[in-house]
Amino acid sequence: MKEKIISKATELFLKLGFKSVTMDDIAGEMCISKKTIYKYFCNKEVLIEESTSTVHQQVHDVIDTIVVKNYNAIHENFEIREMFRDMFKNATDTSPLYQLKKHYPEIYQNIMTHEIDQCNHYFRDNILKGIREGLYRPDLNIDLYVKFYYTLIFHINATTVSEREAQKIELEALEYHTRAMATEKGILELEKQLKKITI
């Protein structure tokens, strides 16, 4: 039952917003009593923590499935961007991270701590892969580029109210990030990926 509650709560939080969904809403959607929810979660904040942790895990599981497909480094980044677009296509118009930062700052900080750590590994691996493939320049300061990119992406999500707007700006950030690192061969691959984009 606990997993079912988390699943339904996650769906509602993303669709309607963390702030607006109440425990009554979740109970009503599931045709259970609010008392049943409180048996597993002492308050809404704990349920939000569990839900965001679930989304975090789902995101990284999907990233892992994309990475093992062994696309080139630039194609891989565009596939991951597409995955995020699909995952959050039914989300409320307000960016989930923006909502968390505004209404639940402590939960937001906890997520960011884990997220930055995981993204560090992924961005670093992607840059090293791109260098090996001749798509990124070999003289890059990898630590600096990793930091540039995650700072850019997380700042966009935490400060842009509209989810749709955040996704548009993220695409610009991905292009900006890739052009900054790319060799001539990398630029050709970037242009190829941009032509396939549907926003």
From TrEMBL:
Keywords: DNA-binding
Molecular function terms from GO: DNA binding
PROSITE patterns named in the record: HTH_TETR_2
Pfam families associated with the record: TetR_N (PF00440)
Domain of life: Bacteria
Record-annotated HTH tetR-type domain positions: 1-59
Coiled-coil features, chain-numbered ranges: none
Portion annotated as DNA-binding: 22-41
Stated name of the protein: HTH tetR-type domain-containing protein
